[in-house]
Amino acid sequence: MSASIDKNFDLFSKDLRWLSDNLEALRLNYENKYVLVQNGAVVLSNADYDKLLAAAEGNKIDITKAVIERIMPKNVQLLLLG
User: Fold this and answer.
1) Is the pLDDT of residue 66 over 90?
2) What is the tens place of the pLDDT at every residue in 33-64?
3) What is the Cα–Cα distance from 29 to 39, expressed in whole angstroms?
4) Alpha-carbon distance 68 to 24, whole Å?
5) What is the DSSP letter of 2?
6) Is the pLDDT of residue 22 over 70?
7) Is 74 helix (H, G, I), strand (E, B) or coil?
8) Max Cα–Cα distance, the chain, nearest Å
9) Residue 14 clears pLDDT 90, i.e. is over it
10) Is 41 in a helix, a strand, or coil?
11) Where are the domains of the chain?
């Protein structure tokens, strides 16, 4: 792996860990919304995924270097079908 890929993966992993560690607090403001996280902070949020992507593009944010996740309510269970 190149140094650039390693660095991007490390940053992505840190942001994903931050999101997980702060999920309860994030639910207060972002429940049922998508959030874009970079550098341990919510940079953008929107209830509509496509609008979040459009806002990221408008702000010249490289979404390949960000974590995008929907903040689900606490007691929601997802059924994955294979």
Assistant:
1) yes
2) 999 999 999 999 999 999 999 999 999 999 99
3) 19
4) 17
5) -
6) yes
7) coil
8) 40
9) yes
10) strand
11) 3-70
Smallest CA-to-CA distance from 45 within 54, 57, 56, 33 is with 33
User: In the prediction, which pLDDT does 78 show?
Assistant: 66
Q: Are 12 and 65 in contact (CB under 8 A)?
A: yes
- Indicate the average pLDDT of the chain: 92
Alpha-carbon torsion, ordered 66, 67, 68, 70, to 10 deg: -160
Burial 23-47 (b: 16+ CB within 10 A, else e): eeebeeebeebbbbbbeeebebbbe
Cα R_g (the chain), whole angstroms:
14
How much is the pTM?
0.85
Say how far apart CA 78 and CA 58 lie, in whole Å: 32
Strand order in the sheet with 67-70: 41-46, 34-38, 67-70
